[in-house]
Amino acid sequence: MATSTGLADISFLIDLKCPECGTLHNAGIINTVCINPDCRSTLFAQYDLHTGLNKAVLKGRPANMWRYHEFLPVIDPKNIVTLGEGFTPIIPIENLKAETGDNEVFWKDESGNPTGSFKARGISAAVSKAKELGVQTMAIPTAGNAGGALAAYAARAGIIAVVYMPKQTPQVFKDECRLYGAELVEIDGSISDCGKLVNEHAIQNGWFQLSTLKEPYRLEGKKTMGYEIAEQFNWQLPDVILYPTGGGTGLIGIWKAFDEMEQLGWIGSKRPRMVAVQSQSCDGIVQAFRAGQTVSEFVDGGFTIANGLRVPKPYADKQILKVLRESSGNALTVSDAEMSIALKEIARKEGMLIAPEGAALWQAFKKLKADKWIKPGESVLLINTGSGYKYLENIEVG
User: Fold this and answer.
1) 160 lies in a domain?
2) What is the pLDDT of residues 100-118, one digit of tens each?
3) According to DSSP H, which parts of 215-335 are helical?
4) Does 311 lie in the same domain as 186?
5) What does residue 21 show for φ and ψ, rounded to 5 degrees?
6) 337 close to 367: Cβ distance less than 8 angstroms
7) How far is residue 179's CA from residue 365's CA, in Å, rounded to a whole number?
8) Among 154, 167, 318, 367, which lies 20 to 30 A Cα-Cα from 373?
9) What is the pLDDT of residues 229-265, one digit of tens each?
10) Domain count across the chain
């Protein structure tokens, strides 16, 4: 079956649409953000969701994110750049039931992805589409994991990668990029400072920018977490999902996946309440949510052990806040000290060495349960975005 654009049936991709102003963009050419100068929003890929495709088609497909290829943007399968990312496990909390009480609480553990984090999903999709569109050099600002992922997938694709990373990032992330052959540029500042330089240098050199939500396809890779959650929970979504929110791509992507699956007839209209968890260092989304604002302010309190949460102002803050409100969700902050305690508790009781970003969710869960925002009997999913092994430089073991 072909889409309305005549594209082959590996993907049901039709076009790209701006969620803010509705402007359509041709998915057959290189795109960044909305061309409307008054908008400049992230673009969302649109698919033909009225094909009658039944979810039974998934049976027997490989256990990776490309099992959902009809709803991913790559047209020619020869352009898929994969290292086996996706279909990460759902792990129930077993030994901390004194804390979980009458709630079923699960981890979706993204640490087993290539390069040790959920960034592999978005980068796989973005690099694959970039390869299909003939991109030669890609540049990215990163707090750590996204840079390592781009370095690995670019190496696999034969594309040049240029990575801009804060100097305060743990050494393992820097070594990882260099080992994969990427050009690494260390910046004395935050990811926002890296982003400004990437933009400047990309324009000068003709590089394609892979900045969070400033191109359409990292979102598509991240949304596969939503497809997996539905499939792994037998098409009955959990009541609450907690998500560590830096750039917020996964939060927006998961919500997009739920909408697509409802249109496909794979799930009903019931949705989880989505919770954004931020570091006290960069809590602009939390402040905006509590103030009833539609956009966030720039907030940068400096270093946090959760590198991925040091995002002073997410590019898609409007979309993040929209998801939180549409889902009747919530937003809260966690300190570095609380993350450290939670990380050790999960390691010592559950045998999982999770990233500080993931550990923040455990602390947030306990707060929300104590406040009775999480109700008795509700099922709760915590998304651990990466491996704690890469953060050992930031963590006091004692």
Assistant:
1) yes
2) 999 999 999 999 999 999 9
3) 218-232, 249-264, 284-291, 317-326
4) no
5) -110, -10
6) no
7) 37
8) 318
9) 999 999 999 999 999 999 999 999 999 999 999 999 9
10) 3
